[in-house]
């Protein structure tokens, strides 16, 4: 009797495990060696959300989405969607097979399993488990259920599972298993990148010895930077374990969330975990008319080191100048940096297209001012074959309100051999204006602010915004993004395109058949595509949101361009 009860208990557990797995989702039917899992959340509901987005962009466009939704059956080899349950989630599971095509397995819930299997193509091998139909075009057929604890959920869990579950369309990538499958190819790719950088470096050395290196610039520090970046990318790939991507759609727009996990205490994990995040509240102090803004919080000293390496590569073979530069470079290491925010917009071709502002938090600010002035003096004149750059700084040259303003000007010249048509000189004038690259810098209590392009008015606007009431405009465009990221970018693409096209119409001899007045009348609402990134303990999270206003603006621009072409 006891044996019968024991046998019954074991059978109940086995049957219970199968029913539990398949009642919710077949993730644990397939083993953890699955490399990619794609999920379409409740197709009927997701189609409705896509309809709402299409109608929000352009009334009536939802009808077209509904018509294309019928093609879903073709993608899943289910003609007419016969017998498929569209109220529950659908899955596609891929297993990598080296250089061969991956093995594909479909897992579809059924309202009528017999009807569904009857319409499957002849080459499909299928299995019915509960109310799920599992099928594959492969010759090996559908595998047996994975042993308890060895299914996909054993590698898709925690925040990886949460991001996967939130998406209307979701993808999970089992990086751990993929890396082991393609280990040889990854190592070979890394070696080839290193060899390419070494070969370029050797070629540049030979050109430098022969006096034929372009512009005479020392490219070695730049190559070292690229080599460091490549090593970091391959190290991240070696440390990564899993990645989930979830895409959500609705009348408000499209959201994309990505989450990557790394091995505990790995090099990449420690690097991301050490980067301080920030709410970037200074975004509210940027000019409200900016069409692109950014915020950065992290290891600013490393970023500064890359910048100094770039400058060092342009120094002439002057021992005294190099020694002064080295001392000034070391002095920056005593400065403590906070977050940095900035904005970008376009001006006019006559006065210079580029408009850039920045607010950088740093202490002690007196040391920042001293180092900035010293570095500018050291880098005052840089000459290489065919190229000359002059940088001048006028300390306290202007006064705006209670603030003293330094004015820094950078002029670049190319000789006739490098610029025989004068094209580069004209381009510089178009980008920065006839006076060169002019920046204004003000040093405040715990931050310094900079405005490049736009003249004195741009700096006045920035300081007025900085000193005045915080502007809430950019905060409302951060919905759906990370609250305290390492990197934040907001861009109004349609409005930026309008500014760019308007500026292009002002460039002499540039045949653009666009009426600037008509362009300015386009009904484009202010909105911003948002991108945010944050390092977490043993993980990296990315969130992107594309509001419906961006889709509307792009559609308006496309319609305008089509009208212009038809004239």
Q: Brief description of this entry?
A:
With 567 residues, this protein is α+β, with helices and mostly antiparallel strands. 40% of the residues lie in helices and 27% in strands. α16 packs parallel to α18.
Question: Could you characterize the architecture of this molecule?
Answer:
With 567 residues, the protein is of the alpha+beta class. Among the domains are: 2-154, no CATH class; 318-473. The protein is 40% helix and 27% strand. The chain is built from 18 helices and 19 strands. The chain has a 19-stranded antiparallel beta sheet, with helices on both faces. A hairpin with a 3-residue loop joins strand 15 and strand 16. Helix 12 packs antiparallel against helix 13 (365-378). It is globular.
Task: Set down the secondary structure blueprint.
Blueprint: H1 2-24, E1 36-40, H2 43-57, H3 61-69, H4 72-75, E2 90-97, E3 100-109, H5 113-119, E4 125-129, E5 132-136, H6 158-166, E6 169-173, H7 175-181, H8 183-210, H9 220-239, E7 240-250, E8 253-262, H10 267-273, E9 292-296, H11 300-312, H12 319-331, E10 336-348, E11 352-363, H13 365-378, E12 381-384, E13 387-400, E14 403-414, H14 423-432, E15 437-443, E16 447-452, H15 455-467, E17 487-491, H16 493-504, H17 516-520, E18 529-536, E19 539-547, H18 548-566
Antiparallel strand pairs: 1-2, 1-6, 2-3, 3-5, 4-5, 6-7, 7-8, 8-19, 9-10, 9-17, 10-11, 11-16, 12-13, 13-14, 14-15, 15-16, 17-18, 18-19
Helix pairs in contact: 2-3, 8-9, 12-13, 16-18
